[in-house]
Specification:
5 strands, 184 residues, five-stranded antiparallel beta sheet, Alpha-Beta Plaits, alpha+beta, 16% strand
């Protein structure tokens, strides 16, 4: 078995939109491994986290979502990374790609370029300091055969598309292979 992942499934959120103590629960820096306990929802913790924020939460509008999507596409092209899918929502972005870097460095580059483009094309944001939450979710996809669930989640399970890109040939190929594997 290959020791290197085939691709990454990266998710990052906008600043202040998912705090510790939130009803959706969260992971801490110390307990962020698979099957470890999440931080229990607790309003006082969420309120304390909100009080420590340096800026208001950041919610992307439709034009800003499209700017971030274009930035993700261009960053992948520039770095010669294979982009399978990207979906930018008002408070988070999902990306599935092959990269030559670690998943953490890949996510950092994606966020950095998205920030630069948001400031460049949306002058109302030029003085903003915080666009993204610290880190995000970085999952390995170990083989091409296991790519489809991540693509399906991004393409079909995020609600009405706001700013969506996907490699339709790869998605259709994966869908056809899975259909044949399960139903024929």
């Amino acid at each position: 078995m290959n020791k290197d992942p085939f691709a990454y499934f990266i998710t990052f959120r906008t600043y202040g939109t998912w705090l510790h103590g939130d009803l959706r629960s969260s992971a801490s820096r110390q307990n962020n491994q698979f099957n470890t306990h999440m931080i229990t929802p607790w309003e006082p913790l969420r309120d304390a986290m909100r009080a420590q924020m340096n800026e208001a939460e950041f919610i992307l509008n439709e034009a800003q979502c499209k700017t971030v999507l274009q930035s993700l596409i261009h960053t992948c092209q520039y770095n010669h990374w294979k982009l399978y899918a990207a979906h930018v929502r008002t408070n988070h972005a999902h990306v599935v790609l092959e990269s030559t870097m670690t998943k953490e460095k890949t996510m950092a580059k994606l966020k950095c370029h998205a920030t630069k483009d948001l400031k460049k094309y949306h002058p109302e944001l030029k003085n903003r300091e915080h666009f993204w939450s610290r880190h995000g979710s970085t999952k390995n996809i170990w083989a091409p055969e296991t790519l489809f669930p991540a693509l399906y989640y991004i393409i079909k399970q995020q609600g009405s598309p706001i700013a969506l890109f996907y490699d339709s040939k790869q998605y259709d190929l994966q869908a056809e292979m899975l259909y044949e594997a399960y139903f024929l």
